[in-house]
Design brief:
- This protein is α/β, with parallel strands linked by helices and 487 residues long.
- 39% of the residues lie in helices and 13% in strands.
- The chain has an eleven-stranded mixed sheet with strand order 1-3-2-4-6-5-10-11-9-7-8, with helices on both faces.
- 57% of the residues are buried.
- The structure holds glutamine.
- Glutamine binds next to loops.
Length: 487
């Protein structure tokens, strides 16, 4: 096994652990050492607790020695985006508002990872309250892209993508409301999966826009993503939007689902604004599938041009409501400069929230206000239905859609000062959230200047097994997963 253990996939490491060639303590020590060596430049972590991780690893080794290993995640260090609750660990949402908050409980996904034997490793940086596409909106400062640390890793789960690409974790979790798993996965050259809305419990995820948010995995390979998804998916009565559905063995299904697939290419996703190198790489992926015997069909999603507007009405409306709880009394930063109770609310929120979060709260409050509700929020909900219908119509003819994940590769930190320019990063990912569908980004090349490119596959509701099998077929025929940034 290569000396760079921290760059190996779960599948290989699990075998080494099973064969006693490696212990979880050794693996965790390697990941900790790697983190200490590179995180000064990458800045993917908001916090980590070395001794706690080693204690978990030792417990995992003891289980394995006693013949009680809990499956492929036993002893594997997994990092969590800093919006997912872990008992006794800081939970900040990368906001001053929660700078000193320690979670008193576990998210459901956290519990499930513990059940699967994973070593929970560190709190990963993100845009404040997951609002952004570059991880620059973090109160902890930006994360660097491991392929070029002067560039952004994407966002909002930029820390989760960067930590994985840099070898500071073996897999990570992020959350995706409008693209926050897939876009950073594309920009950092890793696999990122946003599950169907309702497949993974949101209990213990700091809410941004509840009708759009989903937790999902970042992984080095599609097979690893299948393993992590299998561990975290499933019905949870503590999330009222959680769906009752059988969870297949996603990993085993990779070998059995072979197509031939019908793939749709939405013409609206290849227009103006798409970087030509990305267009070429995705076209090569289309050619690959065609050579594999897939039927390729151009399809149309005619309401695509309304996705961004619809998203920024619905997401901000839900955010303004979700973030009302941070008032300095029940939760969050409490101002020391307040004259009276009303002043305490406003000062605490003025001091605790950063500019992008404030912008969204103001916009969301406006679109929900009486007299405007019908004109904005209600209308956006209607358009959302049309957008979902576009996808469902396309799925009458095809099994999945193939698109670019992001219109551009990683850009320079500070380059996009205008919020609208940043909102445009999500044009290919947002529709999937509005329609509640699963989407995966897989590495599909590097630009001439050496920056990763991602292709997005979009699937039918709860058809993650098909989506993973399709992505796996592409991945296995290419070498992108073996390319790593030189840090
Ligand atoms: N970039 C989008 C936004 O800023 C999506 C964020 C996300 O998926 N959490 O809202």
């Amino acid at each position: 096994m290569s000396s760079e253990l921290f760059l190996r996939p779960i599948t290989e490491l699990a075998t080494a652990l099973d064969e006693k060639k490696l212990s979880s303590v050794e693996l965790t020590q390697t990941v900790i050492a790697r983190t200490k060596a590179v995180d000064g430049r990458v800045k993917a972590f908001n916090s980590f607790d070395e001794s706690d991780a080693l204690t978990q690893a030792a417990a995992s080794d003891a289980r394995r020695a006693a013949g009680q290993a809990r499956g492929p995640l036993e002893g594997i260090p997994i990092g969590l985006k800093d919006v997912i609750a872990v008992t006794g660990q800081p939970l900040t949402a990368s906001s001053k508002m929660l700078a000193n908050f320690v979670s008193p409980y576990d998210a459901t996904v956290t519990q499930k990872l513990k059940h699967a034997g994973a070593v929970l490793w560190g709190r990963l940086n993100c845009d404040e309250f997951a609002m952004g596409s570059s991880t620059e909106n973090s109160a902890f400062g930006p994360t660097g892209n491991p392929w070029d640390t002067t560039r952004v890793p994407g966002g909002s789960s930029g820390g989760s993508a960067a930590a994985l690409a840099a070898g500071e974790a073996i897999a990570t979790l992020g959350s995706d409301t409008g693209g926050s798993i897939r876009q950073p996965a594309a920009l950092c050259g890793v696999v990122g999966l946003k599950p169907t809305y309702g497949l993974v419990s949101r209990y213990g995820l700091i809410a941004f826009a509840s009708s759009l948010d989903q937790i999902g995995p970042f992984a080095r390979t599609v097979e690893d993503a299948a393993i992590v998804l299998g561990a975290i998916a499933g019905h949870d009565e503590r999330d009222s939007t959680s769906f009752k559905t059988d969870i297949p063995n996603y990993r085993a299904e990779l070998a059995t689902r072979k197509g031939p697939w019908k793939l749709g290419i939405p013409k609206e996703y290849f227009g103006e604004g798409l970087d030509p190198e990305i267009a070429t790489a995705v076209e090569q992926a289309i050619t690959f599938y065609q050579k594999q015997g897939c039927e390729i069909k151009e399809v149309s999603l005619p309401h695509t041009r309304y996705c961004l507007d619809t998203y920024y009405v619905i997401a901000t409306a839900e955010a303004s409501s979700n973030l009302a709880r941070y008032d300095g009394i029940r939760y969050g930063h409490r101002s020391k400069n307040a004259a009276d109770a009303v002043d305490l609310y406003s000062q605490s929120r003025a001091e605790g929230f950063g500019p992008e979060v404030k912008r969204r709260i103001i916009l969301g409050t406006y679109v929900l206000s009486s007299g405007y509700y019908d004109a904005y929020y209600l209308r956006a909900q209607k358009v959302r239905t049309l957008i979902r219908q576009d996808f469902l119509n396309a799925f009458r003819d095809v099994d999945a859609l193939l698109t670019p994940t992001s219109p551009m590769p990683a850009f320079k930190i500070g380059e996009k000062a205008d919020p609208l320019a940043l909102y445009l990063c999500d044009i290919y990912t947002i529709g999937v959230n509005l329609a509640g569908l699963p989407g995966i980004s897989v590495p599909c090349g590097l630009t001439k200047s050496g920056l990763p490119i991602g292709a997005q596959l979009i699937g039918q509701p709860f058809q993650e097994a098909n989506l993973l099998a399709l992505a796996h077929a592409y991945e296995q025929a290419h070498e992108w997963r073996n390319q790593h940034p030189k840090l």
